[in-house]
Structures are given as C-alpha cells and as structure tokens.
C-alpha cells in the first residue's frame, strides 16, 4: 500500500522527481501511462500538481489521456491544476490539447471549479486561453454563479472583466 509521499509506480517516481527522460523511457517500455494510484492520481495529474511542464508534455506525447477523469472525484489534470493554481501546468495542459470547457461527470469545468475556489489567477489564464465566461453546465452552473455562491470576489471580478456580468440573477 502506498503512502502519501510514496510513488505507486516507477513512472510516478520519475514524474515526482521531474525526470522527463526517465518518463519518456518508461513510456517507450510500456509503462501504464493512465494508471491511477490509491489516492486517485494518474502520472499526468501528479505532474500537473507539481508544475512539471516538460513531464506533462512528455506524458501526453507518449499517449497519456489528457482529459482522463480521476475515479474518486471525477476531476481532470486541468481541473486539479486550476484548483491548485498551478498556472504553468494549466497552460501546458491546454497546449497539449486539454478541453478547456470539458464538463466532468460531477458537473465541473476547469473555470467553474477555479472560480468557486477563488483561484483568480487560474480564472484569468483560463479566460485568456479561451474559456467561455458564460458557459452553463447541464445542471445550470456557471462560473459567475459559483463565484457568487462561494463569495469569491477576485474570481467574480475576473469573470466580469471577461463578459460574465449579466449571468448572475439576484432574485
């Protein structure tokens, strides 16, 4: 059983130590790129949370699924990076093809999740890279509504600056 500081696989150990060449070599040798640890993390999620941009690129080029959702929370690497405000990872994942408005099984998008948590830098980057500020999920969530609900003023300001001002109904 892995501890919170222990790597589950050789690939994850290489990711944790930002060893891009080792990641590429392990991928070439058939490492399971999308294996999920007991903590619900894939190698890509670990790289994203650590800000290991070159490892993110190497994993995706080697075939890791960029928008895979972790089993426990249904979050993608992009959502987790946005929530943790690891801006270089957010940018790297988007450049590697992560879907900016992908709605997870739990009804989250990267923008909605970052806005609800008050991660204004992530909100800003997502908007600058093309996130729709007025996107509405199947269950009616928008980033602005979630920012208001969670009292996240900085997120709301960023959203308003990018055109979400008319999306909040104060009934």
Automatic annotation (TrEMBL):
ANK repeats lie at residues 39-71, 106-138. One of its GO terms (biological process) is protein K6-linked ubiquitination. Keywords: ANK repeat, Repeat. GO terms for molecular function: ubiquitin-protein transferase activity. The keyword Repeat applies. InterPro entries: Ankyrin_rpt (IPR002110), Ankyrin_rpt-contain_sf (IPR036770). SUPFAM superfamilies: Ankyrin repeat (SSF48403). Coiled coil: none annotated. Pfam families: Ank_2 (PF12796). PANTHER family: ANKYRIN REPEAT DOMAIN-CONTAINING PROTEIN 39-RELATED (PTHR24171), BRCA1-ASSOCIATED RING DOMAIN PROTEIN 1 (PTHR24171:SF8). This is Uncharacterized protein. It comes from Pyramimonas obovata.
